[in-house]
Design the sequence.
């Protein structure tokens, strides 16, 4: 199977999108697939791990070179980017971006992976995707579950740990901004939003002011990678079922941001 044929398998559940950041962003797609690695982001560390495992196709949810649209020259001449691309070329590694299609799967494979690892799938609303009706518990108890099941050392909280909640909305990835979150709070049904990340001056400041006015809402920010990585792990499992003849693995890595 060629790399471009693998791309067609990834596209199939959605159909070809007219506008997308996805595709074969490193390589021409005409090489034979030998082994596949899925990952949240194709970092230099991931590339080295792929080389060690004999992987020649990396499926990455996020871009290779620090720009959503994979414009590798956006920052001018970059020795860091050139060295990274050279390592991929030297070892004939193709990189597939799998972002827009992942979020358009039904259900969204990224949310599905998160719910699976959190053991929350049965609590998802039957109509509204990413809306959960959890057993009533405190924000602190939910934060503890997130840390234990996702392997997170620290979570950012806006609100009160003691606040009880049951209606929880997921805004995984970069969907923690005001436009994505504030209208949901305003409808009066959401107790807690769990977000990957977002602008600090938008939703966090709204929640802070709402708490000061006596409204019981909270926000947990768990980090972009930790909110989406489980979805790419599920992708590896599914591809292994579809393509049993190929070695397929999920490449783990620490988050880039560490707390000191």
Sequence:
């Amino acid at each position: 199977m060629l790399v471009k044929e693998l791309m067609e398998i990834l596209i199939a559940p959605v159909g070809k999108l007219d506008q997308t950041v996805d595709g074969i962003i490193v390589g021409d797609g005409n090489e034979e697939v030998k082994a596949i690695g899925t990952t949240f982001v194709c970092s230099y560390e991931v590339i080295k791990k792929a080389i060690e495992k004999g992987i020649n196709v990396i499926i990455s949810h996020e871009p290779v070179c620090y720009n959503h649209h994979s414009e590798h020259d956006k920052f001018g001449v970059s020795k860091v980017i050139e060295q990274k691309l050279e390592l991929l070329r030297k070892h004939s590694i193709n990189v597939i971006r799998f972002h827009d299609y992942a979020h358009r799967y039904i259900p969204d494979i990224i949310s599905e992976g998160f719910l699976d690892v959190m053991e929350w799938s049965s609590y998802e609303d039957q109509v509204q995707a990413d809306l959960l009706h959890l057993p009533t518990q405190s924000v602190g108890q939910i934060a503890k579950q997130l840390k234990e099941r996702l392997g997170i050392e620290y979570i950012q909280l806006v609100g009160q740990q003691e606040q009880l909640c049951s209606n929880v909305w997921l805004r995984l990835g970069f969907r923690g901004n005001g436009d994505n979150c504030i209208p949901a709070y305003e409808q009066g049904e959401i107790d807690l939003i769990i977000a990957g990340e977002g602008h600090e001056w938008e939703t966090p400041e709204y929640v802070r002011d709402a708490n000061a006015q006596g409204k019981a809402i909270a926000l947990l920010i768990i980090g972009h990678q930790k909110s989406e990585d489980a979805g790419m792990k599920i992708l590896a499992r599914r591809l292994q079922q579809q393509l049993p003849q190929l070695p397929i693995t999920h490449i783990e890595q620490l988050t880039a941001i560490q707390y000191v």
In short: Residues 109-225 form a domain with the Udp-n-acetylmuramoylalanyl-d-glutamate--2,6- Diaminopimelate Ligase; Chain: A, domain 1 fold (CATH 3.40.1390.30). The chain has two domains: 3-105, 109-225.
